[in-house]
Structure formats: structure tokens, C-alpha cells
Amino acid sequence: MYVCVCRAVTDKDILEAIAEGATTVRQLKEQLKVTESCGSCLESVRDLVKQAQPSEAA
Known about the structure:
Blueprint: E1 2-4, E2 9-10, H1 11-19, H2 25-32, H3 42-52
Antiparallel strand pairs: 1-2
């Protein structure tokens, strides 16, 4: 699914960048240029970063 339509970046692209070491929205912005144009993808990018982080054990 496209997350950033302006830059044609998919959720798979973002998850791949996260798997390769990107841990913040800023790093994804630098690498994939997401959130730079209209910014409407920011919440989706944040959600993907949050989902990719290991959950803390209770």
C-alpha cells in the first residue's frame, strides 16, 4: 500500500528501511524523502515506526 503518494513510497519500502536500521521518522525522511512534500503521510509513517519497535515485556 502506498503511504507517501507524493514520493511513491509503500509500506513495504518503509518496513524495509526500518529493517535495515532506520529507527525514526527523521531517518526515513532522509532516506526515502517521506513527509517532505504535503506531509499527509506523517501519521502513517509514525505508526509504522511504532509498530516495528519491539514491544516491552510487562
